[in-house]
Amino acid sequence: MAQSYVMIGGEGPLSYAKNSSYQGGVVDVAKPIIEEAIKQKLDINELCSNGLMNNFWIADFGCSTGHNSFLAMQMITRAIGENFQSIRSVSQIPDFYVFFNDQVTNDFNTLFRSLPPERHYRAIGLPGDYHRCLLPKASLHFAYSSWALHWLSQVPKAVEDPNSPAWNKGRVHYSGARQEVVDAYSSQYAKDMGAFLEARAQELVSGGLMALVFPGAIPTSVENPNTSYSDVPSETALIGSCLMDMAKKGRVSQAKIDSFNFPIYFTFPEELKAVIERTGSYNIERIETLDNPGKHTLTNANARASFYRAAFEGLLIDHFGCEIIDELFDRYAHKLEASPAVLHPDNDKSVMIFVLLKRI
To answer: Name one GO biological process term (predicted).
Structure first.
């Protein structure tokens, strides 16, 4: 399944490159937070304690075709360089190497064709699943990921099993589903996020930093902060309703819908904190929610539909075939026209989670 997770490549009108302004808005909002974190938390003397540092390794996990990643890498390398210059005992800035990671089927050709000519780092492709180790042990100094860690490695098996209490018949996501479905997704997320953190713990040097930004959710119950999901983004449920409408017209089979679920999960800060603490490899330097920083970048229903199509088309084609995709997203855009998120962006309750970790 992971092979279908890649975004639409190239630079055409439906590509991720042309439909990721929301993610770019997230980078803009996170920029001052990450710059401050590098200035305050990246201990250059600690990193240089074993001698002069000639090379500084950075990795972006889940970079897609790179357009938003380039903005982040420019900001990160500049901030780290300024941090080196501020330390009098360090006579020179190291050479920066940036590893751009995504699935092996990601469009790395577009990424490397689009690299900024004026950059202060050497770029290296790093294809592979980020739930496992991809770099040598204790080699990475700064890890980064934006808009990637809400993807699961797979749909929870119980959700697709007709004999399981968590079978999600008639739905394509856990939004609005029974608690058994929610619990299955939560359990899969804890497993996958734990694997990601364990892999990075192997790769990061002691004192290395990791900055993560990804869509999450906020609890509506103080008493049960990890079990209240009413604010989970519902766009996936709206796609499900479009599929159900098409099933009624015979355009797609009900069985196909019953066997499909989106492999994405929107965690809560407290839930994430618990997963991080279980690894025992990091200090949590900062964790907070950003109030939907890209909400004004999707100005109409068609733009919002194209945004989700760029992310989900490969996954949907893999399961339903390519014949229904245009109709599905036409219906989706039509339904979005009446969506509060489109009509009144300021009322959109979705959030982004920012977390800064330091390798112990």
So the answer is: methylation
